[in-house]
Amino acid sequence: MNWYNVLKGDTRNRLEANWREQEPLKGTRNEIDFKPVCKLFLPWTTGTWLLTELEPNSSIAFGLCDLGFGTPEIGNVCLRELFSGTGPGNLWVEQDIHFRATKTLSEYAAEAMRIGCIRV
């Protein structure tokens, strides 16, 4: 599956725009605490990703990552790698097209780290 075609609607453009806006601010106190643009999930497990940025011309995204082991963390994820595998019945990673962020990434992260999983 081509990960590039999985992101629905304007998602990829919004993620890349956030990356461009954030890039000159990284490592400063002016970094932007974006609301997540999209939620990806594994339909056969509890794996969940809330993404805020995507490096243009790359498969490197940034966001809150939860593999379902009780230790969610903020960081980078390689979408090419994430979309390279399949689950039972040939299921793929999916984008939750109904997801609408109500908090910033750091707010989701604080809650997820406190309870051990992403709750949306």
Q: Which range does the strand content fall in? A: 15-25%
Name the quaternary structure.
single chain
Rg on CA atoms, Å:
14 Å
Number of domains: 1
The largest pleated sheet is described as: 5 strands, antiparallel
Distance linking N and C termini: 26 Å
How many helices?
A: 3
Mean pLDDT: 92
Low-confidence stretches: none
Listing every helix as H and every strand as E from the N terminus to the C terminus, the arrangement reads HEEEEHEH
Strand order of the largest sheet: 4-3-2-1-5
Helix content: 10-25%
- Structural class of the helix and strand makeup? alpha+beta
Outline: globular
Q: Please provide the count of β strands.
A: 5
Summarize the structure.
With 120 residues, the chain is an alpha+beta fold.
What report would you give on this structure?
This protein has 3 helices and 5 strands; from the N terminus they run H-E-E-E-E-H-E-H. Strands 4-3-2-1-5 form a 5-stranded antiparallel sheet. The model has no long low-confidence stretch (mean pLDDT 92). The chain is globular and about 45 Å long. The chain has helices at 11-22, 79-82, 105-115; strands at residues 38-41, 48-54, 60-66, 73-78, 94-95. It has one domain. With 120 residues, it is of the alpha+beta class. The protein is 22% helix and 22% strand.
Main features:
five-stranded antiparallel beta sheet, about 20% helix, about 120 residues, alpha+beta, 5 strands
